[in-house]
Amino acid sequence: MHDFLDMGGYGLYVWPSYGLAAAVLAWNIWSALRLQRIALEHARRRVAIAKSDAERAAH
Amino acid sequence: MATWTWFHKLSSPPHFYRIAGKMIPWYAIPAALLIVAGIYGGLVAAPADYQQGEAFRIIYVHAPSAWLSLMCYTTMAVAAAVGLIWRIKLAHALAAATAPIGASFALLCLVTGSLWGRPMWGTWWVWDGRLTSQLILFFLYLGYMALRSAYDDLQRADRASAVLALVGVVNVPIIHFSVYWWNSLHQGSTVIRKDGPAMPPSMLVPLLMCFAGFTLLYAALACVRVRAEVLNRERNATWLKELSPS
Amino acid sequence: MTPRRKRLFAILGILAGVGIATAVALKAFDNNLQYFYDPSEVASGKAPSDKAIRVGGMVTKGSVARAPGSLEISFVITDFAKNVTVKYNGVLPDLFREGQGIIAHGQLKDGVFVADEVLAKHDEKYMPPEVAKSLKKQAPAPAPEGRT
Predict the structure, then answer these.
(1) Is A6 among the domain residues?
(2) Across the interface, do C56 and B86 touch by the CB < 8 Å criterion?
């Protein structure tokens, strides 16, 4: 285990590389899902407003 | 003519929204499996290099992110051209959705390259052809995103940024061929080579898995992001009413 | 010509224009885009003397000589046509070894290159140590580095 973390003396360079890669992958997934959530929320709100406007106009 | 009807059907927002939604798991699940297997293969299963020892394992995140940053830019430029020529909003949406993904992988490529260069070359950074042109790619992404955000009007943002994406695409072949055109510190390509990959299968297979995994991840991310763009752009379309309630 | 056609040709025109302009600019600055000179360019006088430049080549086998009790080192680099002797006083990168491609930054003084920085260049080939060892037994000549 110690040998694995040490990476033949290059652990200081290998592990930050993989750590940053994990961070970039995580950011990409998080930000895409966040955009989707916000867009859906806004679209539903617009649909609801349009519907209530239409109902009010009908009365 | 059949391809054209298919193309027009796909480029209609509601149709794309449905199809892309269905495709996401088909991209995301293989992407996750391939990336996990590739990273495990690269960190654990692959042997150390005869010259670079364990430090060479950085290639498993460095090279796929370099590939993805180039592929994303090319996708962006092609989508921008399609958007300009055929006035297809969905193509502009794809270009806009691709930029932040490409930028993040261009940055990952630069930083991991730096972390690799320090122990192997003896320097964090040099201004040789390859490193400089890759840095320019990163700045092109930033410029593209900044230009988009400078416009309030979506249509003008689409057109102005599309021209920048097109002009910047000349940098893509420069990045690839820089190491062959000029003396550089960076070595040539390992996988795309006349005589075939300069790697034994024990090292190559995990690398190819990472390449495929990153590419499929892009496809999944692009589907999610373009769907969000479509929702924001189709402000009052009637098909939005069919969205399932939360 | 339909407007769509017009836009298509306009875009092709932009791409061709930018492409040609870039190609011309790169051609004009070709020498500045070279990260280093190789020993043949040094020998033919293309590399300026008494000015900070970089030279690159492969470290010749058996040419590395260290001054006892100091970090000072001298070695010969080659591009398999011409040679340049390099003198250096400082820390070497991990990959520095005989038969390795290197790039040195410094000045040419009376035909000897006095370096203040030495970087190691590696090629695009990767293999496990055992494979490298058995390959070495079969064919001892290494592939040349640098400009091809």
Answers:
(1) no
(2) no
Q: Which residues does chain C have within 8 Å of residue B184's beta carbon, measured at their own beta carbons? A: 35
* C139 — pLDDT class (breaks 50, 70, 90): low
Can you tell me the mean pLDDT for B136-164? 95
Residue C23 clears pLDDT 60, i.e. is over it: yes
State yes or no: pLDDT of A17 exceeds 90. Answer: yes
Average pLDDT over residues B7-36: 90
Q: Highest mean pLDDT range out of B25-39, C39-53, C104-118?
A: B25-39
The C-alpha of A56 sits at a distance from chain B's nearest C-alpha, in angstroms, of 18
CA distance C76 to chain B (A): 19
For B231, the closest of A8, A33, A40 (CB atoms) is A40
Q: Which region holds residue C69: left if phi is over 0, alpha if psi is between -120 and 50, else beta?
A: left
Domain range spanning residue A53? 23-59
Q: CB-CB: which of C35, C124, C130 is closest to B190?
A: C124
In a domain, A57, yes or no: yes
Q: What's at C11, amino acid-wise? A: I
Which has the closest alpha carbon to C33: C54, C17, C13? C54
| Sequence-ordered list of residues with C-beta below 8 angstroms from that of B148, at least 6 positions apart, any chain | B96, B99, B157, B161
- Neighboring chains of A (3 or more beta-carbon pairs < 8 A): B
CATH domain B20-239 topology: Four Helix Bundle (Hemerythrin (Met), subunit A) (1.20.120)
Among candidate residues B74, B117, B76, the one with its CA nearest the CA of residue B96: B76
- Determine how many CB atoms are found less than 10 A away from the CB of residue B81: 23
Rounded to whole angstroms, the maximal C-alpha distance in chain A is: 78
pLDDT tens digits for range B171-199: 999 999 998 888 888 998 888 888 888 88
- Chain B residues with beta carbon closer than 8 angstroms to that of A39: 227-229, 231-232
Q: Is A49 on the interface with B (CB under 8 A)?
A: no
Report how far residue B112's alpha carbon sits from residue A18's, in angstroms, rounded to the nearest whole number.
8
- How many Å lie between the alpha carbon of C106 and the closest alpha carbon of chain B? 15
